[in-house]
Amino acid sequence: xxxxxxxxxxxxxxxxxxxxxxxxxxxxxxxxxxxxxxxxxxxxxxxxxxxxxxxxxxxxxxxxxxxxxxxxxxxxxxxxxxxxxxxxxxxxxxxxxxxxxxxxxxxxxxxxxxxxxxxxxxxxxxxxxxxxxxxxxxxxxxxxxxxxxxxxxxxxxxxxxxxxxxxxxxxxxxxxxxxxxxxxxxxxxxxxxxxxx
Length: 197
What we know:
By secondary structure, the protein is mainly alpha-helical. It is built from eight helices and no strands. Helix 2 (41-49) crosses helix 3 (53-69), helix 5 packs across helix 7 and helix 5 runs parallel beside helix 8. It is elongated.
């Protein structure tokens, strides 16, 4: 083999390596773009909490794969109406018993999630599964639970409890509105005077 042949082989090998490297980079960018599109701000939050972006992206891809295994289903019209009525009751009790109403709101939200097909084993699993399709209400879900936990352990003031109710309502509305043709609310167009503002 002469020098020119060796040089051509080396250049061909370098070209193949370059094409492979570009393919890998392109796939990573595509995966990152898809994950950002699916998870929105949850993508950034997860990346910030991990040592490496690759670890965060692996976790998010695993969440998405677990979510795809769930059998998320809409509520029947009767179930939707039952949840809307129950939520009205929780809101009306807020005036006289805000702490109790916050706990009831959390319990109602958990039942709603279970009926829709979301796992309700633990809070972390709920967050992970909500993050896939409901990332825009995830911060409210977390905030509502943080307030409820603070309220259970050390006591939150009435304004914090009210904020917790508003956070839970945001998630509730999201999950109920997906389950029917009518937008939330529909219980006799609800008595807005009793609503938590």
